[in-house]
Amino acid sequence: MAQSVDKRVCIIGAGIGGLTSAKYMKEEGINFTVLEATNYVGGTWRYEPKIGTDDYGMPIYTSMYKHLRTNLPKPTMELRDFPAPDSWPSFPSWKLFYEYIKDYARHFDLEKHIKFLHIVTSVRREGNVWKVKHKHIPSGEEFVEEYDFVVVGTGHHSKPNMPNIPGERLFNGTIIHSHDYRVPDAYKDRRVLMIGSGPSGMDISLDVAETAKTLIHSHHSVVNFRTPFPANYIKKPDVKEFNENGAIFVDGTYEDLDDVIYCTGFEYDYPFIDETSGLTLSKRSLTPLHNYMVNIHQPTMVFMGLLVRACLVIAIDAQSQYATALFKGNFTLPTKEKMLEIWQKRVEAIRSKGKPISHIHFVDHYEDQYYEELTRESGIPRVPPVMFKIRIKDTEAKLENFYTFRDYVYTIIDDETFTRKLEKGKCNKLHCEP
Fold it and tell me: Measuring CA to CA, which of 83, 128, 133, 235 is 20 to 30 A from 355?
C-alpha cells in the first residue's frame, strides 16, 4: 500500500480525532484537508450555552454541560508529544481541557489546514477515489473534491438517542435529552426524573440533585453502585409509561414529576456516507470495522473514536498514528477475508453471551490488548499498559463513591506502574490527606 506524497486525505471534523490525525499526517508530509462544520476546534469539548441550532441554523453538536469535569484522570487525558499543564487538578474541568485542545492545535500549527464552517454532505466511492461533497455554510457554496483516503473524526456523541416511551406526548412537564442539558438551575425545587446510568447519567443526576426537590433515577443497570446518595435521591426501575403528571414504572409504582432528562446515549450518525462505503449503519453500531476503525470493505476509510469503555483520548491518539502509518504505506493490512474473519469471531463471541451487536464497539478489559494489536500490526509506539491499569482503578473508585472518585491523584511511575493518593485536604472512609 505504498503511496506517493500527492495522495490526498480528507479529515472530517476538527475534534480530537481530526486534530490528532492532522498532527501526525502533517509530520509525515501527507497532503490533507480538515473539513469542520463549526467555526471552532475541539468538537464536543466546547461549552455552548445555547441549545438547538446555532446562528446559521445548524444543529449544535456539542453536549458539554457547565459543571462537567473529566471522568478519567489527567494521565489518561494527555495527547502524545503535548503534556498537560502541571497546574491541572487530577480531573480537569471541560474548560481546562478545551483550552488544552486549542493550545494543541496552535502548537502544531493545524488551523491553517482546517476549512471551518464547511459541512460534509456526501462521501461517495467512485472508481478508486472518494468524492467528497461539502458546503460552505455561510455562503451556501458547494464543492466536490476527490480524495484517496477519508478519516471520519466526527465521533458519535451529537445525535441524541431518544427512547420513545409510551405516553410521552401526554406528559405536561418538560422532556429533554442530556445533549441539551447545561445547568441545574432550572430544576430548583422540582421533581426530576433522570433515565439512564451511564457516565453522564450518573454525573448529571448528582448535579441536578444539588438543586432539585426530588431526583428520581430510573435505570436497569446491574452495576453495584455503592455511592451514598443524598436523601432526595430515589432509585427506580425502568419507566413503563408516562401520563399527564408523572411516570408509572415497571414495578407498578408511580411518581409525580415536573421534568424528565433522558441520559440514554447517542446514535451513530453519518448521514454523508452511502451504500458505496459498504458499511452497515444502525443507531447503535457501525459495521464491519477492523480494529474498531478501518472500513473492511473500503479500507481507505477509517473512523476515529468508535470505542466504548476505554481511555478514549489515548485510544484516539493511537488510532490517528495507526491511520497515518496506514496511509503512508508503512504497513499492509490483512486481506479483506482475514479482516472479516477476525471481525466475525468477535461478533460470534458477543452473540454467544446474549449481547446486542452494539457491544462490537466495547473494548473494556481488552483495552491493553487492543493497543498491543495496533502496535503489532502497524509499528506505531505502544500505548503503555499503565493507562489501562489506571482506568480499571478509576472504575473501581467510581463504583465505590461517585462523589469522591475525582479526589484521587494518579501519578505514572513507569510504563507498568502508577501511584494513587488522595488530594491534599480530601478524606474518604479509608483515610485522609492533610
Answer: 235
Q: What angle do CA 259, 223, 190 make, to 5 degrees?
A: 15
Same domain for 324 and 183: no
Q: Is 266 exposed, middle or buried (0-12, 13-18, 19+ CB in 10 A)?
A: buried
Residue 235, sorted as left (phi over 0), alpha (psi -120 to 50) or beta, turns out to be beta
> What's the CA angle centered on 367, arms 422 and 149, to 5 degrees?
125
The rounded percent of the chain whose pLDDT value lies above 70 is 97
Q: Which range, of 225-229, 278-282, 334-338, 404-408, averages the lowest pLDDT?
A: 225-229
Residues 357 and 276 in one domain: yes
The C-alpha cell that represents 347 in the structure block? 461478533
* pLDDT tens per residue across span 330-354: 999 999 999 999 999 999 999 999 9
DSSP 13-64: --SHHHHHHHHHHHHTT-EEEEEESSSSSSGGGS--S--SB-TTSPBP----
Shared domain check, 86 and 142? yes
Contact present, 428 and 417 (Cβ < 8 Å): no
Task: Indicate the length of the chain as a whole number.
Answer: 434
Could you tell me if residue 113 is inside a domain? yes
